[in-house]
Amino acid sequence: MRISFIGSGRVAHHFAKQLSKQHQIVQIYSRDLTHAQKLAEQCHAQAIQNYSQFDHNIDLLMIAISDQAIAEVIVNMGRYFENVLIVHTSGSTHLNVLSQQHARSGVFYPLQTFSLERDIDWSNTPLFVEATQVDDLQILVALANSLSNRVYTYDSAQRLSLHLAAVFACNFSNYCYDMAKQVVDAEQVDFSLLYPLILETANKATLNNPKTMQTGPAMRGDQNILNMHMKMLAEAGRGDLKQVYEILSQGIQTRQSSQ
To answer: What does the DSSP 8-state code read for residue 104?
Structure first.
């Protein structure tokens, strides 16, 4: 396939590099030409920063940009690629944001966290596809299968639920790791001592119902420990961490008391 990208950030970076192993990446568009050039060099593509420079002879245009910018981009791009399949890679943006402006529209969403510094295990990364036309859905399924062993045809509502769940499972949990590091750093304690605990907790959550795996003072209802921890945070001037600690502890107790 001949594929071009709008966007040169983390998602575009990982998709373009991986797809370039089996397909031709034609162009990378970004308002920041330097960013587009860096990615284009890695996948043997052309970097551009003006819509007028687009090569229309492609099979697929992937929009891999911030969610809030997708609607504006498709309004501008539809007239340039009237007969081309256009997809976005967002978990939280409805398909109709594209389909209201463009007949051949779809979604190509990877349920993964992306960092420029780390490679992705694409074979185990779930990919979710959706399209307005049956033939285009088949094209996206085939493309997804060339990357991953886990391909699903979920609709926009299902995808949004996954995106929300991912914020809890990934973004919020990572912030908890960050808070934990702040606590031990304040006492010059090695954060790596928590690595086995972090890995075991994540591993248990993938093998069991997370509710039944819950441990800790909140689950046990140990109010003495809860009070001591919150006092420590207050005395350290970390009212922000104390607030999170209190909210999460209350949430755990409420959840454990439910059936």
So the answer is: S
Cβ(131)–Cβ(103) below 8 Å: no
Question: If one looks up domain 160-257 in CATH, what number appears?
Answer: 1.10.1040.20
Cα→Cα distances 96→128, 139, 157, Å:
16, 19, 12
And the tokens for 169?
């499972």
The answer to whether the CB of 116 falls within 8 A of the CB of 135 is no
**pLDDT tens column, 109-144:** 999 999 988 899 999 999 999 999 999 999 999 999
CATH number of 2-154: 3.40.50.720
Q: What is the dihedral of CA 3, 131, 156, 211, to 10 degrees?
A: -80
Q: What are the residue ranges spanned by the domains of the chain?
A: 2-154, 160-257
E-assigned strand segments in 111-230: 127-131, 151-152
Neighbours of 55 (CB within 10 A): 11
* Distance from the Cα of residue 146 to its chain's centroid: 20
Could you give the C-alpha distances from 10 to 58, 66, 97, 172, 235, in angstroms and in order?
22, 11, 22, 19, 40
* Residue 62 DSSP SS3: strand
For the stretch 135-175, pLDDT in tens is 999 999 999 999 999 999 999 999 999 999 999 999 999 99
- Prediction pTM value: 0.89
